[in-house]
Write a structure and sequence with these properties.
Blueprint: H1 3-18, H2 21-28, E1 29-32, E2 35-38, E3 41-44, E4 50-56, H3 60-71, E5 75-83, E6 94-98, H4 105-119, E7 125-131, H5 135-138, H6 148-161, H7 165-173, H8 182-187, E8 191-197, H9 220-229, H10 238-249, E9 266-272, H11 274-287, E10 292-294, H12 303-315, E11 322-327, H13 342-356, E12 364-369, E13 381-385, H14 388-394, H15 399-404, H16 408-414, E14 418-419, E15 430-435
Parallel strand pairs: 4-5, 4-7, 5-6, 7-8, 8-9, 10-11
Antiparallel strand pairs: 1-2, 2-3, 11-15, 12-13, 12-15, 13-14
Helix pairs in contact: 1-11, 2-3, 9-10, 12-13
């Protein structure tokens, strides 16, 4: 890899490190004697019979490890739910691994274990909930009348539809006994402190992990509209359609709403976000001697369109500029689709724009998930330049065909253009970094 290419890797590494979940907990949560403090929230541990740690998401293990270090001997019990191969060793908390993005039976059992511990809390207990991206899928807790298979099928339809993550999560909330404030209800009347690593645009607590410990503004009516907008209503299972219909009719209880008594005992703090990651990427590029331009609008919407727009912006930058952006795009999967992820799709689409411009040959685009994963693959994303498209064709490949059928992974793997990091211990959406050469 060239020295200039290494700038992109260095910027990405800096972004991931800055949003590291374990470090973020240590940076925000302090203990002095028996006083636990985060921002203006102060908790006297002597007033607590027990301190329980519940953690869920791709960064759950690191967050729980930091909480074990800080709370130390005052920690009573813990339950951690994370993605397969994202676990590790903890002293007190029990770790459960489960599937993401489509839930599985292991997640169902883990969600029940987490709920059981939450239900055991009393008014003299403190529950610390460490939340990170991925919790929506890792904590499948179907409402009465629904099965795990119902949740799996609905999740698959939503993920393939191109719906925004906020829309996906709004639907998940209304099918769950944990999401949409369900965990807060389960833990009441205990005091609940949520520490969140944000993987959503705007860091909205109601969207992070589908909001298990906060009020939910979405409604059954909105979920019904989402299913109609993305043409999945007729393909949902009868049980899901029946539940959503009952919700719209008012015979199925809504998610937790503003004003609920459980909220009086709840505090919520975001400890890491995509903005921190982008700040660090910018600082790294500046340190390497590059002028930096940051796209203010978050990456969102169709991944291919976003990739082309990013490449267009990069080509308008002066030579030597590093361009950074962050967010989370979507991909509508066609019938007979191949293997890939939104960042791989983004990068491959960007390659079309770079290849078509006489000045794009040496420009480079790096797009990857800060959690180290991109779709159902072992890659985090991809890095390529304006020579990629012609090089792939010269090697006998059809890059346009791979792009059209959402099959970026095998092509990128053959061309040695994948970004592979393994689990990073955090999850603050995606980062795109470009270098105009």
């Amino acid at each position: 890899m060239s020295t200039r290419s290494s700038v992109l890797w260095s910027c990405f590494d800096a972004a991931v490190s800055a949003a590291g979940a374990e470090a973020a907990i240590h940076a925000h949560l302090r203990r002095e004697g028996d006083i636990l403090q985060v921002a203006s929230c102060r908790i006297d541990l002597t007033s607590c019979d027990r301190v329980l740690v519940l953690a869920a998401g791709k960064a759950a293990t690191g967050m729980a490890r930091a909480l074990e270090d800080i709370i130390a001997e005052r920690l009573s019990l813990g339950c951690v739910v994370t993605k397969y191969q994202h676990g590790g060793q903890l002293r007190t908390a029990q770790i459960h691994e489960a599937a993401h993005p489509v839930p599985d039976a292991a997640g169902l059992a883990a969600a029940q274990a987490l709920l059981q511990l939450a239900h055991s809390a009393t008014e003299r207990d403190l529950v610390i909930f460490a939340l990170s991206g991925g919790a929506s899928a890792l904590l499948p807790a179907p409402r009465p009348g629904l099965s795990l298979a119902d949740l799996q099928q609905c999740t698959e339809l939503l993920l393939a539809s191109g719906a925004a993550i906020e829309q996906v999560n709004a639907t998940r909330k209304h099918l769950s006994t944990i999401a949409g404030g369900g965990l807060l209800r389960a833990a009441a009347p205990a005091r609940v402190l949520t520490l969140a690593v944000s993987d959503v645009l705007g860091d909205d607590p109601a969207s992070i992990g589908s909001g298990p410990s906060c009020a939910d503004p979405s409604t059954f009516e909105q979920v019904f509209a989402i299913c109609d907008e993305y043409h999945i209503w007729d393909r949902l299972t009868p049980a899901v359609r029946a539940l959503l219909t009952a919700g719209v009719a008012g015979t199925e209880p809504e998610t937790l709403k503003s004003g609920d008594p459980a909220l009086a005992h709840a505090a919520y703090h975001v400890v890491a976000s995509n903005a921190q990651a982008l700040d660090a990427a910018e600082a790294c590029a500046h340190k390497a001697g590059h002028p930096v331009r940051r796209i203010a609008a978050p990456l969102c919407g169709d991944a291919a369109a976003a990739g082309r727009a990013f490449a267009d912006e990069l080509l308008r930058c002066p030579v030597g500029t590093v361009l950074v952006a962050g967010g989370e795009t979507t991909v509508v999967l066609p019938d007979g689709h191949g293997l890939g992820g939104r960042n791989q799709h983004f990068a491959l689409a960007a390659a079309v724009t770079l290849a078509a411009d006489p000045h794009g040959e040496s420009a480079q685009v790096f797009a990857a998930g800060t959690d180290g994963t991109d779709g159902p693959t072992d890659a985090a994303g991809a890095v390529l330049d304006g020579r990629f498209w012609a090089g792939a064709q010269a090697a006998g490949h059809d890059p346009a065909g791979h792009l059209a059928r959402c099959d970026a992974y095998p092509l990128l793997k053959h061309m040695d253009a994948l970004v592979t990091t393994g689990a990073t211990g955090t999850n603050v959406m995606d980062v795109a970094i470009g270098l105009r050469q």
